[in-house]
Write a structure and sequence with these properties.
Belongs to the thioesterase PaaI family. Helices cover about 30% and strands about 30% of the residues. The protein has about 170 residues and is an alpha+beta fold. It has one domain: Thiol Ester Dehydrase, Chain A (Roll), CATH 3.10.129.
Length: about 170
């Protein structure tokens, strides 16, 4: 990669880090309008307090402590909160590779063991493949102290696009 490519990769990694550590802000550092109006609360709550230890092209590693709002009555990290956190980490990892905001096209999550209130977890997101405009990514969620696997997420993501969808009436179907 040339000097310009290196600078671009560093900029994308820094942007992904900043967003993951505070998903309430957009790429320009402004509070996202949906959050300001009270929407998308779970999206930012799921990774509140996240600390990114590594952000590089195609890979993001972060950790967070499971907070009370994200647990069930027994003090276990709620499956929905794990799913949202994993989606956020996947989006950050794919952003570092594509350089564009992304949306989830396909999502699969397998749960292995529970994490509990105040337990620290580490999430590692990786881009594992690309097919045309799509990117395949995985996130492993582990208990930081023991390394025990909590969940694995597999996703296909695509860049958000403002390009007009073809209005052609022809179809291959």
């Amino acid at each position: 990669m040339g000097d310009a490519g290196d600078k671009c990769a560093l900029r994308l990694a820094a942007t992904a880090r900043k967003w993951l550590e505070d998903v309430r802000v957009d790429r320009e550092g402004r509070v996202h309008p949906a959050v300001a109006s009270g929407g998308q609360a779970l999206t930012w709550l799921a990774t509140a307090g996240a600390r990114v230890s590594l952000a590089e092209p195609g890979r993001v590693v972060c950790s967070l402590r499971v907070g009370a709002p994200l647990t069930d009555a027994e003090g276990r990290w709620h499956a929905g909160a794990i799913a949202v956190a994993a989606d956020n980490v996947c989006a950050a990892a794919v952003f570092t590779a594509l350089g564009a905001d992304v949306l989830t096209v396909q999502y699969s999550l397998s749960y292995f063991s529970p994490a509990h209130l105040d337990e620290e977890v580490e999430m590692e997101g990786r881009v594992v493949g690309r097919k045309a405009a799509l990117a395949a990514a995985t996130v492993e969620v582990r208990k930081k102290e023991s390394g025990e696997l909590v969940a694995i997420c597999r996703q296909w993501m695509a860049p958000l696009s403002t390009t007009k969808v073809s209005t052609s009436t022809s179809s291959k179907l």
